[in-house]
Design a protein that fits this description.
Blueprint lengths: L3 E3 L3 E8 L8 E7 L4 E11 L6 E8 L7 E5 L4 E4 L12 E10 L7 E9 L6 E3 L1
Antiparallel strand pairs: 1-10, 2-9, 3-8, 4-7, 4-9, 5-6, 5-8
Length: 129
C-alpha cells in the first residue's frame, strides 16, 4: 500500500493596529510559498476604531486587495472570515495583506489580528499509510 506524507497546516498570526495601516494603502503581511494551498483566514478586530465617519479593513492580495474580505467595519469589534478562497494551489508566490479606508476624523485607537492558515504540499511532517 502506498504511503502519503502528511503536512501540518501553518498559521500566520499577524497583530496590527490603526497606526500600521495607512488609509488607502495595501500593506503586505503574509507571503504564501509557491505551491501552497490557502485554507482559511480571518480578520479579528479586537479593539474597535474610533475614526470619524467610516473605517474599514479589507484583506486580499496586491492584485485583488478586497479579494478575501471586502470593507469589514473596523469601528465594530468582531471577526470577518475570508471568502472567495482559491480552488487550487498557488502557481506563484503570493502575499496577503490588509487595506484600510478611513473617511472622516483620524482614529486614535483600533487593533486586531490577521490569521492566515495554509498548507505546503511536499513538506512532510509525518508519513501515514
Amino acid at each position: 500500500m502506498k504511503t502519503y506524507p502528511r503536512q501540518f497546516s501553518r498559521w500566520a498570526v499577524i497583530p496590527f493596529s490603526y497606526t500600521d495601516l495607512p488609509t488607502g494603502v495595501f500593506v503586505p503581511l503574509v507571503k504564501l510559498p509557491l505551491g501552497s494551498y490557502l485554507v482559511s483566514g480571518t480578520v479579528i478586530k479586537e479593539t474597535a476604531s474610533n475614526a470619524g465617519t467610516t473605517d474599514t479593513v479589507s484583506a486580499g492580495t496586491q492584485a485583488a486587495p478586497t479579494g478575501y474580505v471586502n470593507a469589514s467595519d473596523f469601528k465594530t469589534a468582531g471577526r470577518t472570515d475570508f471568502t472567495g478562497l482559491p480552488a487550487s494551489k498557488s502557481v506563484i508566490a503570493s502575499t496577503i495583506g490588509l487595506t484600510r479606508t478611513v473617511v472622516g476624523a483620524a482614529a486614535t485607537q483600533g487593533a486586531g489580528v490577521l490569521l492566515v492558515q495554509y498548507v505546503c504540499p511536499g513538506v512532510e511532517d509525518e508519513v501515514k499509510a
